[in-house]
Amino acid sequence: MEHVALKDWSATDWTYAGEGGKHALFAFQGDMSDDRTGFLLRVSKSDLAQSEWIVKCEQETSDKGLDGHGDDNCVKFIQEMFACKISKHYIDCPRQVLLPWSFLQSLRRQTVFQHANDIPSRRKHDWTMPKPEMQMNDFPAHASGMLVRNYKHWTSIDDGDCIAVEIKPKAGYTAFSPLVDPQRRCKYLKSRFALLQDLYCQGVIVKQWSSSNSTVTRSNYDPLDLFSNNYARMEAAIRALMDNPQNNLRIWCCGGFMMGVGNCQDGNHDDSTRNWNALADYLHVSPDQAPSALISALTSILLQEPLLQQILAFQRLDVIDGDGAVLLYQRLVHLLDGSNDSAHALLNDYSSKEMKDYHVDDIEYLLSHSPVRSPADMSRINRFCEHTDGFRRMQLATLTDNVRC
Fold first, then answer.
1. Average pLDDT of the chain to the nearest whole number
2. How far apart are CA 253 and CA 65, in angstroms?
3. 222-236, 240-254, 273-287: which has the highest mean pLDDT?
């Protein structure tokens, strides 16, 4: 991990570039010769909100927090878990950095003051400063951030022209676990994205990225099509994304915004129109043909590259489904005499300590360090695994027969 001193970094070198549910992004705007040029700083919004209180405590007391830093398992997870299923040349591993709490305090104040109108209305509460439940000595001495490449300004192509496309493909499979709750068996028939779109349009759930006065429209995108490895279905999936991108598709041309839910740096509709016209000139097509030409190019690239199939193989490691995870947690609580607090403490301790030395191929280590004693007889677990695989094959056969009909 790279340690960053306050004298090396200034909040004024960074500007608010957008945010998701848990993290905010800041674009570097300092010296162009700096090695941080072309990168985004990704910071936890909870750390930003709590920095005000933590710095105040540091100034009023001698407490400086625990030795060490915030969660640093993300990079290790990318390096060790993704690498076993996804080719390394598809993975751009972020640089993890230590950040003084005073830097986050300055960054938060600067953002709230200068970009109040750019923060989505439904996410403004994330920037408030509630007093944390933890004591000062429970916090790490430094916060943790990540430097991720800003691909919309990537110009490594020889002629300097670059089209950057950001797609959130979502889960490309339907549930196949026998542990799915009987009342939620629709998971066997529709993708998770499609089900959430239904709930979104019915007003059951709210998308934080959407403005409070925007019209709710259902996306016809289906991840099952994108991951199908079939040209026609993949093309239809990308077209559906372009028809209604929501926050699942964003496109830039030479750094200029073209499509998607934009942020404060992405420009306006006039900029988007100009960039589409520029793309049409580059592709030697008329402006109204540019979207179709781009769809065809994206489909061809994704069909030729094995990336989507590698992602799908990684996704399908989920053999228990979220409902099964709930059942496992309830079983853990039962083994701990019904104490949710004990279960939380055990899981937190296990993930923060034991997993630091865990490697994806070291199953024996995982079993030997399990917080709950392994059963002497593994036959029931083995039978469950066999039933799960058989159930998955049965579901696939049923779905295939339905398609044929």
1. 77
2. 45
3. 222-236
Q: What tokens appear for 278 in the block?
A: 């520029």
Residues with Cβ < 8 Å from 236, sequence gap 6 or more? Answer: 225
State the distance between the two ends of the chain, measured CA to CA, in whole angstroms.
Answer: 56
* Cα-based distances in Å from 184 to 74, 78, 401: 31, 31, 22
Q: How confident is the model at residue 6, as a pLDDT?
A: 45
385 closest CA partner among 314, 319, 328: 319
Q: Is pLDDT at 204 greater than 90 in this prediction?
A: no
Checking if the pLDDT of 162 tops 60, the result is yes
Instruction: Pull the structure tokens for residue 107.
Output: 């960054």
Cα 101 to Cα 55: distance, rounded to the nearest angstrom: 6
What does the block give as tokens for 262?
Answer: 């934009």
Residue predicted with more confidence, 262 or 248: 248
- Whether the model clears a pTM of 0.90, i.e. scores above it, the answer is no
Q: Which residues contact 94 (CB under 8 A, 6 or more apart)?
A: 42, 74, 75, 78, 146, 147, 148
Tell me how many degrees the CA angle 347-317-219 measures, rounded to the nearest 5. Answer: 100
Residue 143 pLDDT grade (very low, low, confident, very high; cuts 50, 70, 90)? confident
Give the residue among 121, 110, 117, 134 at the shortest CA–CA distance from 43.
Answer: 110
Task: Determine the Cα–Cα distance for residues 207 and 197; give it in Å rounded to an integer.
Answer: 10
Q: Is residue 251 pLDDT above 90, yes or no?
A: no
